[in-house]
Amino acid sequence: MKLLIIEDEESLRRSIHQYLTAEGNICDSASNYEQGYQKLSLYDYDCVLLDLTLPDGEGLLLLKYLKKINKTDGVLIISARNSLDQKIEGLSLGADDYLIKPFHLSELYARIQSIVRRRHFNGNSIFHFNEIEIDTTAMEMKVHGKPVYLTKKEFDLLLYFVANKNKVISKAAAIVHIWGDDADMADSFDFIYTHIKNVRKKLTDSGCKDYFQSVYGIGYKFTDK
Amino acid sequence: MKLFTSYNRILSVITLAGLLVIGFLFYQMLGQYLNKQIDDHLYEELLEVQDFTHVKNILPSPDGYDDVIVEYKKIHRRPDKRKIFADTNFYNPKKRHHETARYLKTELLLNGESYEVMIIASKFERQEEIKSIILIILLPVIVLLLILWLVNRILIKRMWLPFRQLLANIKAFNINQEKVFEPIQTNIEEFKELNKAVLNVSLKVKSDYKEIKLFTENASHEMMTPLAVINSKLDTMLQSNTLGKEESEILDDLYKATSKLTKLNQSLLLLVKIDNNQLQDKEEIDLEALINEKLNYFLELIQKRNLIVKTELIPSAIYANYSLTEILINNLFSNAIRHNYDGGSILITLTEDSLSFSNTSTRSALHPVKIFERFYKDNASEGTGLGLAILKQVCLKQNYKLTYRYNQDYHQFTIIFNQGKINPG
Question: Do the Cβ atoms of B239 and A216 come within 8 Å?
């Protein structure tokens, strides 16, 4: 995938850049409105990560510009403002998703993939990971062609891990992904263990290899390596 | 004591005392004056007696006078010419009863013999006169005073009316509401000044409060970007393949602390948002469905702790903001799960107009007011200490009544939806 990161906070931009390029994506960076404007005019991207508060201009103007020149790049807004109005405005202007800071890189990557999937395959996407087949629209998964029944949360969790395959996902990130910000469950870190155990069991029971690896008790990795 | 009551009390004491003193003095003076008149009259009678004996050489008959009684008594010594005036009682033979009277006693030399002469005049009629005079004068004074008191009362009531209005307006003033302090209309300078002062204070308080809220909001927002940096760095570090056991533990703690900080910040922002009434759109919400949905949402957490959840739900709908209601239920659930012990139980009761969550806990009864304060929590709690504060704030904004009760090992939080409730039909 070809991605553009428009973010003024340098260290955050570097982290995102590092995380995304490690997966074989091509990443471009812009630290302000002007750079963003130029890169958007010159190149096409699969997805643009757009910070709304830039030192020399509003990020929403870049979004408007992008739509004006009829580019079909996917846009993921990353903002520190958890304001419903801004969210609605951003989405109505044609952004594909809205992520509020602070976020986990794994979450960011899963969302980017979801956007790109929707854009490229019209949302009708079935993808594979070895013997696992995942249909994101029907919310179904199959192992060796046989359906495995997962709850919605379990499906979300699996999809999240598959999207971030070969990456370590912290328990904190997994909790936020499944339960969002609403639940005040910051102290229930160990709880994700049970949840993953359930998914693991369902997969291995249906003849799937165990791809989950526990990493030092901090998180998990989904990998076939 | 009310100002008017206090003022009235002092005024009535002074008026009553003044009236008594003046009445007494007045009575005394009148009495003195009348005594003097009677004494003059008695003296005249004495002169008449003297003239009579001088001319006729006999003593006048004691009964020869209409309005006085004259008594003679022979004495055997030289007469003392001193005249003694004094009060006495005497028996009035005509009226057949005792009357107060005034007498003049003196000794006279009549026809070469010494006599003690006593002339007595009744004071009865004169006293009646005094009574009438006092009544005639005092009655109008008392009536006047009564009228004055009444007028005073009405006037003061009317004059204090702006003050009462002002007070009502001050009481109605709420820092959280958009409505500014309502000044009153008055022509009285003092009230105008008070009005102005209160108005200024209210505006200042409002703007200060707004500034503090804005500060909290901005500070929390500003912290989000550095938090995002920390988060992303932690995520990057986690990908390193060279982490030892020790580093992993540090990383885990850092994740926990960052999560908590993020949650804290989000909670503060949420409080500001609720305070600012940013969540206004209302809709009809099926509470029963929402609770069941949330029960499913928290299912894994409940299972993990082996909690037994009993629900007694009847279909109930409220007209409210969806986000706020969701926050309400989320917080009730989080609270009941977090402060429970493994294998404990939760009881959820939804009636037509109330919702209550009861949970078992290792802790006994909590302070019914303090638990809703911001950052109040027990040391064992890993929460932000804002959950119940948010709950309270949401209820406050929606005009719900939120109560806490400790009942037979259960901590019970009850919300009574009074306003915002859809009336049947």
Answer: no
pTM for the whole structure = 0.70
Chain B nearest-CA residue for A179 = B297
Q: Is there a contact between A183 and B236 if contact means CB atoms under 8 Å apart?
A: no
Look at residues A94, A92, A86, A42 and name the one whose alpha carbon lies nearest to residue A67: A94
Residue B113 backbone dihedrals phi, psi, to 5 degrees: -120, 150
Residues B187 and B362: their CA atoms lie apart, in Å, by: 63
pLDDT at A110 over 90: yes
Distance of alpha carbon B180 from alpha carbon B183, whole angstroms: 9
* B 230-269: CB under 8 A from A: 230-236, 238-239, 243, 245, 248-249, 251-252, 255-256, 258-260, 262-263, 266-267, 269
Give the pLDDT score at B420: 46
Distance of CA A177 to the CA centre of its chain: 10
Task: Quote the tokens at residue A47.
Answer: 């997805």
Judge: A80–B228 Cβ closer than 8 Å, yes or no.
yes
The three-state secondary structure class of A221 is strand
Residue from the list A12, A173, A194 with its beta carbon closest to the beta carbon of B228: A12
Q: What dihedral do alpha carbons B406, B408, B413, B419 form, nearest 10°?
A: -100
CA–CA distance, B222 with A80 (Å, rounded to integer): 8
Contact A184 B231 (CB under 8 A): no
Spatial distance between the Cα atoms of A40 and A66, rounded to a whole number of angstroms: 7
Of B238, B323, B383, the CB nearest to A184: B383
Measured CA to CA, the distance from residue A158 to residue A149 in angstroms comes to 12
Q: Is the pLDDT of residue B424 over 60?
A: no
The DSSP element (H or E) to which A25 belongs, if any, is none
Does B370 contact chain A (CB < 8 Å)?
A: no
DSSP labels for B290-315? HHHHHHHHTHHHHHHTT-EEEEEE--
pLDDT reading at B332 higher than 70: yes
Amino acid at A162: V
Q: Give me A191's structure tokens.
A: 């709880």
Q: Give the residue from A60, A211, A7, A169 showing the smallest Cα distance to B255.
A: A169
Burial of B193 (C-beta count, 10 Å sphere; 0-12/13-18/19+): exposed
- Report the run of H or E that residue B189 belongs to, with start and end: helix B189-238
CA–CA distance from A62 to each of A55, A77, A118 (Å)? Answer: 13, 11, 22
Reported as a single tens digit per residue, the pLDDT across A121-155 is 665 678 888 889 998 888 889 999 899 999 888 89
Residue entry with tokens 């299972």: B303
Could B232 and A15 be called an inter-chain contact, meaning their C-beta atoms sit closer than 8 Å? Answer: yes
Length of chain A: 225
Is the pLDDT higher at A189 or at A63? A63
Cβ-based contacts of A98 with chain B (< 8 Å): none
Q: For residue B232, is pLDDT > 80?
A: yes
Q: Tell me the average pLDDT across B138-150.
A: 89
Question: Which ipTM did the prediction report?
Answer: 0.86
pLDDT of B259 strictly over 80: yes
Give exposure, B27-38, as e/b (b: 16+ Cβ within 10 Å): eeebeeebbeeb
